[in-house]
């Protein structure tokens, strides 16, 4: 039987893993600076620093919200439902930032 201390250690490892994953996404900015102009079409990548900050913040916020749900919500079915809703919101925001499917002035993408 797992003790509360064991559960907290595993939860903290999961949280550190989430933070490392978001940091790795943001580290791609440095990699793209080296490879500018080497994209498939020879134009390179059209991502700027603020694009990486936005996606990093979006990923970090989603990961932390899911972690919060996993720690605080007691029933399994509610955890699954809330996590699905959080992931759906993440995908819809990401898609809107990329292509502007909702056409929100000042927020939507191209």
Concise overview:
This protein has 110 residues and is an all-alpha fold. It has helices spanning 4-34, 49-72, 76-99. It is built from 3 helices and no strands.
Secondary-structure blueprint of this entry?
Blueprint: H1 4-34, H2 49-72, H3 76-99
Helix pairs in contact: 1-2, 2-3
Model description:
The protein contains 3 helices and no strands. By secondary structure, it is an all-alpha fold.
Q: Please trace the helix and strand order, writing H or E for each element.
A: HHH
Question: How far apart, in Å, are the first and last alpha carbons?
Answer: 53 Å
Low-confidence stretches at least 5 residues in length (pLDDT < 50)?
A: none
Mean pLDDT: 77
Query: Could you describe the largest sheet, including whether it forms a barrel?
Result: none
Number of domains: 1
SS elements, strand count: 0
Helix content: over 70%
Structural class computed from helices and strand pairing? mainly alpha
Q: Helix tally?
A: 3
Supply Rg: 18 Å
**Overall spatial form:** flat
- Residue fraction in strands: under 5%
């Amino acid at each position: 039987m797992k003790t509360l201390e064991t559960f907290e250690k595993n939860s903290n490892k999961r949280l550190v893993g989430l933070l490392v994953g978001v940091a790795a996404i943001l580290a791609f900015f440095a990699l793209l600076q080296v490879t500018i102009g080497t994209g498939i079409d020879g134009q390179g990548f059209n991502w700027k620093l603020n694009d990486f900050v936005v996606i990093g913040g979006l990923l970090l916020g989603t990961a932390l919200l899911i972690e919060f749900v996993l720690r605080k919500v007691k029933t399994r079915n509610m955890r699954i439902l809330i996590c699905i809703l959080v992931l759906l919101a993440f995908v819809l925001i990401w898609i809107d930032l990329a292509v502007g499917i909702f056409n929100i002035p000042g927020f939507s993408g191209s």
